[in-house]
Amino acid sequence: MKSFEYVRPTTIREAVAAAAQPGAAYLAAGTNLIDLMKGGVSEPSRLVDISHLPDLDRIEDLSDGSVRIGALVRNADLANDRDFARRFPAVAEALLSGASAQLRNAATVGGNLMQRTRCAYFYDMASACNKRSQGGGCDARGGDNRLHAILGWSESCIATHPSDFCVPLAALDAVVEIEGKAGRREIPLDMFHRLPSDTPDRENVLESGEMIVAVRLPAEAARFAAHARYLKVRERTSYAFAVVSAAAALRMEANVIANARLALGGVASKPWRAREAERVLIGTPADTQLFRRAAEAALAEAEPSGDNAFKIELARRIVVRAFALAAAGTPEPLPALPGSPFAAFSGVLTHV
Amino acid sequence: MGFSTTLTINGVTRTIALDDPRVTLLDLLRERLDLTGTKKGCDRGQCGACTVIIDGRRINSCLALAISYDGADVLTIEGVARGDRLHPVQEAFIAHDGMQCGFCTPGQIMSAIGLIREGQAGNDPERIREGMSGNLCRCGAYQGITQAVLEAQKALDAASRKEVA
Question: Are domains B3-79 and B88-164 of this chain identical in fold?
Fold first, then answer.
């Protein structure tokens, strides 16, 4: 690991000032960053440790019915907060389907948004990677790429964003609160991560020194609670990143779909909101044929970036299954294997 | 440049001088404090051999910078027995052959203690397996590990009921 200067600010303002210099990085739990630093993939010259900042570890109900999740709330604390999980079950299920219990106990909300791709060529310093080194080339293009992107990729980068948590957040219109030198600004989570284009090294919209301080879920997001699921296909049932995942949510009114939300994970460099699919569903009764049409719409623009054409049909099927599960009702408690398509059904439905 | 971090480790509070901010909690425990019960497996947060309990929560100590955990309460495998009396989770691992070579065992035991404290798995073997999936056992003693966690949980439940009564 390359040596770095360690600073521990006591306020957000101090943190933003300390992180504004080139080469600086924020440290929260470090579950991804320390790993990247050990491998020489990330070499910050200064670590700004924000893990001791006060007040960023709260889950707050705001007067407009939205919920504000501080950037330092731990994944496990959010997923196991009963009130939060009851209102946003797909978010809880996504969190619990990710990583291991040890990592969920440490990893933070802000850090989850900031985590880097798990593309093996990005991690391997002997491989060419445009994300690591702009213009260096991409060894994933002709390499082992069955798990790479099928949407929004470019010739310069076919990596995917690894987050589970961000997928239902994108579906539910979450908003990211960002603090910078010029003050606070907000951006929809769906617009936080960038597609690679020819600058895959620029992964999100944060400017130098800017820091995520919270993620907010609007009041409307809780109206999907009775019919919201996260479904994740992975190469082993636990402790693996998604090959493909989907967050599907429905708001039912007398058997008719009054509103629908869909986002896909493991398919692009960002959580992939599928608005065309949502439009197919709204105003019609829920049935499998309809879900299939929605799935076609969601993947209409998909293209293999290598040996991964199978992911397109897999994603369609995951969309159909996720909506079928969502239509059947949100289980309480969540299944023993969160997000698993192989989970035996248990518990009672909160809505049928 | 010198740094220091104050940690309460297995009940003893100490301030430790660090000559470099890169020292992980795992390396501090093993190389500086001679607490070698906590194992280094992958050193990348994938195997769980380095699991310790910080402020009541199990984490991977290989991905934790010691300097960042200033003020934390750390419980390692060396701190779980009471003198010669083993912790109920340790006893259960022996009773159910929850190991072969034993290298992953301290991490498995710390993870199991954390899992039982979290109280999310109940007595459902599927939830226990899922909750223990961050601890790899290359000998494949998983069946014994799951049995040990189930039994330890029962023993701890009974003990806490007795305490309340």
Answer: no
The reported pLDDT for the residue numbered A350 is 45
Q: B133 and A38 in contact by Cβ < 8 A?
A: no
Q: Band of the pLDDT at B2, cuts 50, 70, 90?
A: confident
What class is the B88-164 domain? mainly alpha
Strand runs (DSSP E) across A167-271, as ranges?
Answer: 175-180, 183-188, 211-217, 228-233, 244-253, 256-265
Q: Looking at the domain that runs over A5-52, which CATH code has it been given?
A: 3.30.43.10
A224-344 placed in CATH 3.40.50.300: no
- Helix, strand, or coil here: A233? strand
Q: Which of A57-71, A89-103, A328-342, B11-25 has the lowest mean pLDDT?
A: A328-342
Domain ranges (residues) in chain B = 3-79, 88-164
Give the model's confidence band at A343: pLDDT under 50 very low, under 70 low, under 90 confident, else very high: low
Q: Residue A134's CB: how many other CB atoms inside 10 A? A: 13
* pTM of full prediction above 0.90: yes
The alpha-carbon gap from A74 to the nearest alpha carbon of chain B, in Å, equals 11
ipTM: 0.97
Residue carrying the six token digits 């290989």:
B62
Burial of A76 per CB tally in 10 Å (0-12, 13-18, 19+) = buried
CA distance A289 to chain B (A): 33
Name the residue facing A35 among B45, B118, B130 (closest C-beta).
B45
Q: Which CATH number is associated with domain B3-79?
A: 3.10.20.30
Pick the residue of A26, A97, A102 with the most B CBs within 10 A to test the interface with B by mutation: A102
Instruction: Measure in Å the smallest separation between the Cα of B4 and chain A Cα atoms.
Output: 12
- What are the distances in angstroms from CA A148 to CA A125, A152, A238, B10? 19, 11, 20, 45
B78/A contact by beta carbon, under 8 A = no
Domain residue spans of chain A: 5-52, 224-344
Of A30, A39, A80, the CB nearest to B65: A30
Q: Would you mind telling me the total number of residues written for chain A in this entry? A: 352
